[in-house]
UniProtKB/TrEMBL annotation, chains A, B:
Functional description taken from the UniProt entry: Catalyzes the first step in the biosynthesis of NAD from nicotinic acid, the ATP-dependent synthesis of beta-nicotinate D-ribonucleotide from nicotinate and 5-phospho-D-ribose 1-phosphate. Helps prevent cellular oxidative stress via its role in NAD biosynthesis.
Keywords, ordered alphabetically: Glycosyltransferase, Ligase, Phosphoprotein, Pyridine nucleotide biosynthesis, Transferase
Lineage of origin: Eukaryota, Metazoa, Chordata, Craniata, Vertebrata
Pfam families: NAPRTase_C (PF17956), NAPRTase_N (PF17767)
The UniProt record lists the keyword Repeat: no
Domain of life per record: Eukaryota
Name this polypeptide is given: Nicotinate phosphoribosyltransferase
InterPro entries found in the cross-reference section: Aldolase_TIM, NAPRTase_C, NAPRTase_N, Nic_PRibTrfase-Fam, Nic_PRibTrfase_pncB, Nicotinate_pribotase-like_C
């Protein structure tokens, strides 16, 4: 699985903010560049005012770290932009820098994660791990955001409807589009329209025709070739004339004036059917859905049926999708019964048209006959919250825990090298992420553990977990991958499993119950001590 | 100037929706693939409820077109995903496809453009120009959106404040971040924090330090080296002790208790100053701005001053930015007067902290002492409207004008090969984009011309333009670039010129006056005829 990074020519080592280099020089000149340091990557609030996020982007971060190194051209560019007083020896040092002393622990990619709990823990020489900040954030933020957004669409749509990502033209350029396709799949989408994403990541691709195809035809004379051989292998028949015959029957049945049914649209359908007889799907809203698109579709599909082929669906791209899907299903049932074609009543109906989380919920409530939903803009741009605010904070340097104190409690970091335990209740749901210092003994199943909830520093609570899981695994040890990396399909599966185990109260899209994130007594004491010592 | 496409390994030819290929096969099998066709790329509404957009992305589209071609691996992938009945000869044909018969006219990159007026006109064989749709949209939509967003920030900030883009970590992955940096620059930003964007596009880069740098220090003992040589070249001095001496004076002057001024923060500033004596800038809000950050900064800056160096600024990243900037400026003035250091009162103040269009307007109204503003999330993700809805519509095929008729007037396309004339008034403002059929004589300066405003089809109007400009230029003729392409700096300059000529009424960010977009009588008649002929 290639990282977008991997697809960019050369290394991504310069894809970072300039201040990382000025700081690096500061550390280097002070002789602090090799001090052991630890950063944590986390977000402060779950996106979309929801109760969870899916952590994503790990594989791409690891791919980036494995090739992290400055080229000669990179160094020359840096020499041109850093202050002229910058010592040459610093650039010589940068030439030797790589991630061979960097270690990364992470929740498995696709895991459900919560606010203020580290997704990644990154250890290594201060200079190197500081330089990684922006690139890691860039690789994790959007990946996790769009995976979470996709998961929300999946939660609303339910497990049975097919979901297709089709946002390429609305994404932030080529790579934004590829990331959107990849992480929407992780979050629970079935298909993408993006062919390159299909090729690079093995995501199933789908697609039919656009309105431009339909409107490019004006009459049946333009259809060529006109003949179609029945599935049985008999002599080819003149397909347009069969369709015309079926159209009369359909129009009579549906009481639609045949002369108002658009013949350019019919020509487009006939042409497409002759081209893809096993895969005929009609885009039915170029003109009028019920008086042109659907009669044309039925005529073509019934003519195909006569030759032994089954149409695979219709697509609707405008108007009231739920209402129209119900009306279309009714027509399919009428045709099915009248013409004795049983499969006709269950022809899949696909819809698109600026589907948002909000109108997907409306659709779900109204009752509809929709089988597949295409989502573009509202999936890939995440308009409810177009960025995930992951941050990357120093928690330890040279053996000493560090924190950032601010007046805003939420922005205060939790100091020190930590282990995160996910506590599970007897019903089989995770209910608390408990951060502990590395040196503490782990909480044990069935044993009481004291905790201090984040943001409620006044009082301790007590919990007895039914089982205890360590959230992070070590993926990179001294620059070497030390854990088998899952395929994209496995990541997707893990995300769905992880979500399925989360209590519905935390999965509610509006006003979810907040998942508990807490510290042990020892960690709480360390935080309090450090806060007291700072001005 | 490399296209993001150019930075992706291999061609972007597959970066498109699958239905483009099913349609391509449909056209090919019907023998229509070489029919001459024309598409137009435009948006239906100006973004952000504004009155204009900047058209951007042309250079990248041209770079994409020049390399447009399917590799053997691309073809093999397509064979694996198209229906099994797809003829082998079609894939052989795809192997020969490129943009050598494609022509593109466009408004110069960076031009002010308006709704429903084509940004691009794309002509060529039907199959090829259809295949280009998604990629062109992907390259234009975000580029134009973020350039327009940047232009709005520039309009609010006014011409004097420096604007810096710093959104890399919030963009849609690496390439989203690079596009954001590039097109924010086009839209009127001065700097970027993104080093790779600096290297690839020549955009000036800026940056100082992060909070993690400041909080990584605990005491002045950690400062190393401690000595700094005066600008004059005299003997190096022990810098930390100079700073301590200045701190006492500053604290007395500002009536701040010296023991509460954070010594870790001071160590970080001292270390940075020794490292970059000509470029010292203080990030003053890691602890308390007025009781720690500013006293520390002043002590270090005054100690530097003694050695002949001038600090270059402070940066604030939290709290009430306008109010704090005023308080900080007051301190600088006090120090300037008291210590007789004239330049001290005008030390630049830079701010960041989730700056949005809305709070930039607030800042602008409140009165402030800010010199430079860093914008990240709200610039690159365009939360007010995170996607530009450009579409790509067939307007002519095989010599016949085409339109898409819908019940929604705004979604009806304007048929036929057109020339767009921009009409200017006597005051030197453009006031109407007039679309005409190619074969019509152009409107002439000083001569009356009849027009029909889009969306008001009931009545014609008359105008007498003071001057007339043809909006589009031919950039690609039969696959060859036929117009010198401007550099990024020239595009930026054109954008600023184009915007400066637009009437303030259309530039208002809220409730702008709508710019007039109209058709000639002949084009209006064609549209009416075609609408009448469709069901």
């Amino acid at each position: 699985m290639g990282a977008p990074g991997g697809r960019l020519r050369g290394s991504l080592a310069l894809l970072t903010d300039l201040y990382q280099f000025t700081m690096a020089y500061g550390y280097w000149r002070a002789g602090r560049h090799r001090e052991p340091a630890e950063f944590e990557l986390f977000f402060r609030r779950c996106p979309f005012q929801g109760g969870f996020a899916l952590g994503a982007g790990l594989s791409e971060c690891l791919a980036f770290l494995r090739t992290f190194r400055f080229s000669q051209a990179d160094i020359e560019y840096l020499e041109s932009v850093l202050p002229i007083t910058t010592e040459k020896a610093f650039f010589d040092y940068l030439r030797t820098v790589d991630a061979s002393e960097v270690s990364v622990s992470s929740a498995p990619e696709g895991s459900v994660v919560f606010s203020r709990v580290p997704i990644f823990q990154v250890k290594g020489p201060l200079l190197v791990v500081q330089l990684l900040e922006t690139t890691l954030l860039c690789l994790v933020n959007y990946a996790s955001l769009v995976a979470t957004n996709a998961a929300r669409f999946r939660l609303i749509a339910g497990p049975d409807k097919k979901l297709m990502e089709m946002g390429l033209r609305r994404a932030q350029g080529p790579d934004g589009g590829l990331s959107a396709s990849k992480y929407s799949y992780v979050g629970g989408f079935d298909f993408t329209s993006n062919v390159l994403a299909g090729k690079l990541y093995g995501i199933p691709v789908r697609g039919t025709v656009a309105h431009s195809y339909v409107s490019s035809f004006t009459s049946l004379d333009e259809v060529n070739p006109r003949v179609l051989r029945p599935v049985s292998g008999e002599e080819p028949v003149d397909f347009p004339s069969r369709v015309e015959a079926w159209l009369s029957k359909v129009c009579r049945l549906l009481q639609v004036p045949a002369e108002r049914v658009h013949c350019g649209e019919r020509a487009a359908f006939v042409s497409y059917a002759v081209t893809f007889p096993h895969n005929f799907q009609g885009l039915v809203d170029t003109y009028c859905v019920m008086r042109s698109g659907i009669p044309n579709f039925c005529a073509v599909a019934l003519a195909l049926n006569e030759l032994g082929y089954r149409a695979i669906g219709v697509r609707l791209d405008s108007g009231d999708l739920a209402r129209q899907s119900v009306e279309i299903r009714q027509v399919f049932r009428t045709c099915s019964a009248h013409f004795h074609v049983p499969w006709f009543e269950s022809i899949p109906i696909a819809v698109s048209n600026d589907v948002s989380e909000w109108n997907l919920e409306e659709l779900a409530q109204e009752g509809n006959e929709i089988d597949m939903i295409g989502v573009g803009t509202h999936l890939v741009t995440c308009p409810l919250q177009p960025s995930l605010g992951c941050v990357y904070k120093l928690v330890k340097v040279n053996g000493c825990p560090r924190l950032k104190v601010t007046e805003d409690e939420e922005k205060t970091t939790i100091p020190g090298s930590k282990v995160v335990y996910r506590l599970w209740d007897a019903a089989g749901f995770p209910y608390m992420d408990l951060m502990a210092l590395e040196e503490e003994p782990p909480p044990r199943a069935g044993k009481e553990v004291e905790f201090w909830l984040l943001g409620r520093n006044k009082e301790a609570g007590k919990a007895v977990p039914a089982s205890v899981e360590i959230l992070h695994r070590l993926y990179l040890k001294d620059g070497q991958i030390c854990q088998a990396l899952p395929s994209l399909t496995e990541i997707k599966k893990h995300a769905q499993t992880s979500l399925s185990k989360l209590s519905p109260a935390h999965k509610r899209l509006q006003d979810p119950e907040a998942y508990q994130v807490a510290m042990t007594q020892k960690l709480h004491a360390l935080l309090t001590d450090l806060q007291r010592d700072s001005p």
